[in-house]
Design a protein that fits this description.
The chain has 788 residues and is of the alpha+beta class. Helix content is 29%, strand content 21%. It has 24 helices and 33 strands. Strands 3, 5, 11, 20, 22, 23, 25 and 26 form an 8-stranded mixed β-sheet that branches. Strands 12, 13, 14, 15, 16, 17, 18 and 19 form an 8-stranded mixed β-sheet that branches. A hairpin with a 3-residue loop joins strand 13 and strand 14. Helix 8 packs antiparallel against helix 9. InterPro entries: ADF-H/Gelsolin-like_dom_sf, Beta-sandwich_Sec23_24, Gelsolin-like_dom_sf, Sec23/24_helical_dom, Sec23/24_helical_dom_sf, Sec23/24_trunk_dom, SEC23_SEC24_subfamily, Sec24-like_trunk_dom. It is a peripheral membrane protein. One of its GO terms (cellular component) is COPII vesicle coat.
């Protein structure tokens, strides 16, 4: 029944021209537009040309304003992460789902597929379903759902009277259960429309036994650790064991929480941590071709009961393998052992690996050829071992997270499959050494703190439903597709994002609203079965002008990034890059062609899409999609993994980092938080012309923040704490940036010298590089493509 592809295609005959709404297929459009020096038209002229505006908000009128990109080149995102609000009544808008959780590429849904094709923009959703937030939790014997399509009752249903409600997705009329007549918030009877689940678009239900296939599992954590010579030399064990000791009490769970450890080199070492032993007991299995569990009960132990034994092991582990001469890595057999150990309960496996697996099942050969670093063959896995193992794990509710800390090629394209298909996370620390790479060392410490203490959901499934007439056909993210629309997530964490592509199968002419609902069913670390439900409501429009005015350029860019990653693996990197350029050409041509009685000069975009060419150029310069042989294969593959699994905000920071000057911060426009003054310097264009030798500049790239300075006394991982106003303001600003994200960014201070500058300058995407256009050249290239 299940198609086990991470990016599931429901029907194999969905062509790119359909899935990408023609954006990935280049073709020309005849146009009678005259390119001349005529002044830009007024909004009313433009609106008339594009078929009239249907009473949209001022914000959307602004989204339609024509922008001459060749003249207005100093463009920057005004407010990161805040899309145009959909054109809904104030009441619906107030109750709508937060864009941080649920975003659509188009905040006005076209009435027909034909209208969508005309706009040549992709239609899809971006989700961050398990993010950290405060939300209403509802305990009720009856969870009210549509009897036909199983949609959960939400703010966008309509009550025909006190006893009947109409589903907003399939329009079936349902009965209101008697229990729903009582409102637990107001303690009043007879007002079903005031219940919390009808007043909030994000809610969480405590689920009944109907939503359980078995009793909720306990939180279970297994750590699988590479202890080969390479691993010991890197020093990661000290960092990990220290972090675990500091955070052992904070691991999410309850009195049933279980924990275990497994180490490996050319053999596999289990640890008996049974309460009552005088010290942890190591059990070695050397037959890696037929892995077995040496004792069934004392390897995955109750954390509360064996707390002291676990601490003893963590204190001892870093020194246990100090003098090892073992250079081999039997990662595959170690993962098979982990699967056998965890199968009875399910849970989370955290794998730490430092090299290419060299023994037993899943062994890999080096494929890193400096001349073939972008070939499609090497971007996919060399073996299906890790994918098959991940699918077995997913079936037993085991999620596998991978920490790769390598100084050499480790074939991440193959190893990543174990996390991709088991709904795991991937962490990558190239060239990690606890002494020689202080920035990476600090990042690992901070990542581990977040990783070990963040909330977690076990044995989860997620389903996305949408209004009748719309359909979902492709999913992006780390998961296993159990049936056509059910995503299996053995583990779910608050830092993972997902994307889906959609098409319009039937006309939506009979409705003015389109709704989307994501329901995530999971077991909390405390053993409670919960259902988190998010519902998004958007207007349906019949005019092309409304579609353009409501385009969400950040969501469009992130969806295209996911599609381009798939394309580069299934076809070629060159194809993916061409498709991205064509997506810009197509949308700008559609805007121009359908306002064909206007005489627009230059290269014109609607204001809502004015950053589209800049973001696509930035995408083309990312490690995931850039050409040339300078990008190491593992670096490229990790960048691809990030695009496929991160939430929108994080992806946008990777694509278009934020650049600030930080040596002259003032109080002007500052935020005042808890008696702290946080300076708010203006964003700068990502161009070397914005830098100066006498300044200090901070580049916030999402996972790394780098400061370029000419100061002589610099520490590589922090800003010196001087008792000066300038120092206090800079540190306050950097701390605020760090606090605003789940994982701390690695922070490094770079001196203004050639060897250090290259890592900073590679993010200056508006400038020309050896193999890529400058922003101005890219605009000219787009204009040239449009005039063919």
């Amino acid at each position: 029944e299940a198609n086990v592809a991470s990016n599931h295609q429901v029907a194999s005959n969905i062509k790119w021209s359909q899935t990408f709404l023609s954006s990935f297929k280049y073709y020309q459009v005849a146009s009678d537009l005259v390119f001349s020096d005529h002044p830009f038209p007024s909004l009313s002229q433009l609106s008339t040309a594009l078929g009239g505006l249907s009473g949209v908000s001022e914000q959307e009128v602004e989204g339609l304003r024509p922008v001459n990109l060749l003249q207005e080149r100093n463009l920057l995102p005004l407010k990161r992460g805040t899309p145009a609000e959909p054109n809904l009544s104030s009441n619906l808008r107030k109750m709508n789902c937060s864009p941080d959780t649920f975003r659509c590429t188009l905040s006005s849904i076209p009435q027909t597929q034909a209208l969508l094709n005309k706009a040549r923009l992709p239609l899809g959703l971006l989700l961050h379903p398990f993010r950290d937030l405060t939300l209403p939790v509802i305990t009720s014997n009856t969870i009210v759902r549509c009897r036909s399509c199983r949609t959960y009752i939400n703010p966008f249903v309509s009550f025909l009277d006190q006893h009947r409600w109409k589903c907003n997705l399939c329009y079936r009329v349902n009965d209101v259960p008697d229990e729903f007549m009582y409102n637990p918030v107001t303690r009043s009877y007879g007002e079903p429309h005031k219940r919390p689940e009808v007043q909030n678009s994000t809610v969480e239900f405590i689920a009944s036994s109907d939503y359980m296939l078995r009793p909720p599992q306990p939180a279970a954590y297994l750590f699988v650790l590479d202890v080969s010579h390479n691993a010991v030399e890197s020093g990661y064990l000290n960092v990990l064991c220290q972090s675990l000791l500091e955070n052992l009490e904070k691991l999410p769970g309850d009195s049933r929480t279980r924990i275990g450890f497994l180490t490996f080199d050319s053999t596999i070492h289990f640890y008996n941590l049974q309460e009552g032993l005088s010290q942890p007991q190591m059990l070695v299995v050397s037959d890696i071709d037929d892995v077995f569990i040496p004792t069934p009960d004392s390897l995955l132990v109750n954390l509360k009961e064996s707390h002291e034994m676990v601490k003893d092991l963590l204190n001892a582990l870093p020194a246990m393998f100090t003098h090892t001469r073992e250079t081999h890595s039997a990662l595959g057999p170690a993962l098979q052992a982990a699967y056998k150990l965890m199968s009875a309960t399910g849970g989370r496996v955290s794998v730490f690996q430092t090299q290419l697996p060299s023994l037993g099942a899943g062994l890999l050969q080096s494929r890193e050829d400096p001349n073939l670093r972008s070939s499609t063959k090497h971007l996919g896995p060399a073996t299906d071992f890790y994918k098959k193992l991940a699918l077995d794990c997913s079936g037993q509710q085991i999620g596998v997270d991978l920490f790769l800390l390598s100084s050499q090629y480790s074939d991440l394209a193959s190893l990543a499959c174990v996390s991709k298909y088991s709904a795991g996370s991937i962490f990558y620390y190239p060239g990690f050494h606890h002494v020689h790479s202080p920035a990476q060392n600090l990042k690992l410490q901070q990542d581990l703190h977040r990783y070990l203490t963040r909330k977690i959901g076990f044995e989860a499934v997620m389903r996305i439903r949408c209004t009748k007439g719309l359909s979902i056909h492709t999913f992006h993210g780390n998961f296993f597709v159990r049936s056509t629309d059910l995503l299996s997530l053995a583990n779910v964490n608050p830092d993972s994002g997902f994307a889906v592509q959609m098409s319009i199968d039937e006309s939506l002419a009979d409705t003015s609203l389109a709704c989307f609902q994501a329901a995530l069913l999971y077991t909390s670390s405390k053993g409670k079965r919960r259902i988190r439900v998010h519902t998004l409501c958007l207007p349906v429009v019949s005019q092309l002008s409304d579609v353009f005015a409501g385009a969400d350029v950040e969501a469009i860019t992130c969806l295209l990034a996911n599609m381009a990653i798939d394309r580069s693996i299934s076809s070629s990197l060159l194809d993916a890059r061409d498709a991205l350029v064509n997506a810009v050409v197509d949308s700008l041509e559609a805007y121009r062609a359908n306002g064909s009685n206007l005489q627009l000069s230059g290269l014109t975009a609607p204001a809502a899409l004015r950053l589209f060419p800049l973001y696509v150029l930035a995408l083309l310069k990312q490690k995931a999609l850039r050409t040339g042989t300078s990008t190491r294969l593992d670096d490229r593959v990790f960048a691809m993994c990030e695009f496929k699994s991160q939430p929108l905000k994080q992806i946008m920071r990777l694509i278009h980092p934020d650049l600030y000057r930080v040596d002259n911060l003032t109080e002007q426009g500052a935020l005042h938080l808890n008696e702290r003054m946080i300076p708010q310097p203006p964003l700068l264009q990502l161009s070397a012309e914005k830098l100066s030798r006498d300044g200090a500049f901070l580049m916030d790239c999402g996972s790394v923040s780098a400061t370029l300075t000419n100061s002589i006394q610099v520490c590589p991982t922090e800003i010196p704490a001087l008792e000066t106003t300038a120092s206090e303001r800079t540190r306050a600003f950097v701390s605020w940036l760090q606090e605003a994200r789940a994982f701390c960014a690695a922070f490094c201070v770079l001196k203004d010298e050639p060897s250090a500058k290259s890592s900073f300058f590679q993010h200056l995407i508006e400038d020309r590089s050896e193999s890529a256009f400058s922003y101005y050249e890219f605009l000219l290239h787009i204009q040239q493509q449009m005039s063919k």
